Amino acid sequence: MSRFGSVTRCLIANRFGKLIAEIQPDLGSISWRLNEVGRVQFRLSRANALVTASNLAFGNFLYIEFDNGLPAWAGLIDPPRVWANGLVEMTAYSAEYVLSLRSTDKTLGFTSTEVGTIFRTLIENANSAAPTGITIGDVWLGGDLHTVEYHYANLLNTIQDDLCERMSAADFGIVPSLSSGYVNLIANFYSKRGLVKNGVALIQGHNAEITLTEQGPIINSWDLAGATPSGSSSTGGWGDDRLTSQDYDPASINAYGLRSGASIFGAVETQDVLDSYAANLLASSKDPKNLIGVSTHNQEPALFSAYHIGDTVRLVAHDLGFVEGIDTLVRILSREFNPVDGSCSLVVEEVQS
Question: How confident is the model at residue 353 (pLDDT cuts 50, 70, 90)?
Answer without folding.
Answer: low
